[in-house]
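Dear colleague,

Thank you for sharing your sequence with our group. We've completed the structure prediction you requested, and as agreed, I am returning the results in plain text so they can be pasted directly into your records. Please verify that the sequence below matches your submission; if there's any discrepancy, let me know and we will rerun it promptly.
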Amino acid sequence: LGELPLERAIEVLAAAAEKAVENALVAQAVAAAMVAEEGLQPEEPPQGAAASLTAASVVAPAAQSPLAPLLREQLAQAGLLDPSTLSDAERQEVLAAAAAGTLLLLLLPVFDAGLAGDLSLSALFGGGAASVAALREGPAGQRLRDAARGAVDKAVEVEKQYELGSQATAKYKEWVAKATKAVGELVR
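Please find the predicted C-alpha cells below.
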C-alpha cells in the first residue's frame, strides 16, 4: 500500500474490510447451520457493539464515501461527520480549524521541543483537536466551521491588502541570493 496513491489505498483497504466482514458473516451462517444440523443450542446473540455489526449496516457501502464501513460506523457513533463526504467548502473550513488549532498551540509556550518539535506537537494536538471539534455534527461543530471560514476570509483580505505573500517571497529570494553569494565566496 505504501506506493499507492492515498485514494486508491483507501479503496483497497475499504474493499478488503468489506470482504473480511462478508467472510465473517458467511462463517457465522455456516456455524449456525452446523449448530442446527448437530441439534445444539445456539449461543446468545452478541450484545453491545458486536450486535450493531449486521450485514445491512456493515456490508452495504455508502454511495459517496470511500471509507470502510466499520470506520463510517465509528464516525457516526462518535457524532462526527465523514470527512470524505464533505463539500470542498466544508473541507476547507475543517482544514482552517486545524490550522487555527495548530497556530494557537504553536504561539502558546506549551511545548519546549525546538521549532520542529513545537510545530509537530502543535499540529498533532492543536490541529487534531480542532479538526475533531470541527467535524462534530450539530450546532457546535457548525459554529466552529463558520468561525474558521470567517478567519480564512479575513486572512485572504489581509493578504490582498498588504501583499504579505509576495513580500515574503521577495525576502526569501533575497536571503537565498545572499546565502548563495556567501557560500560562493567561501568556496573560492
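Summary note from our side: Confidence is low (pLDDT under 50) at residues 48-63.

Kind regards,
the structure core
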